[in-house]
Amino acid sequence: MPNPKRKFSRSRTRKKRTHDRHKLAVLHLSECPRCHQRRRPHRVCGNCGYYDGEPVIKL
Fold this sequence. Notes:
Layout lengths: L9 H12 L8 E2 L6 E2 L10 E2 L2 E2 L4
Antiparallel strand pairs: 1-2, 3-4
């Protein structure tokens, strides 16, 4: 397997890494089957307090 001829400089390595961890991620939202509000998947609905068809939070 070929090896690089020269070591990557510290600034070049950091430039390469900045795009992976520090960019903003797209927030994925799904619809609550009970109240039809947008919510994050696999989370309790903040509007009605239900998760997987069962009440979790009393509002």
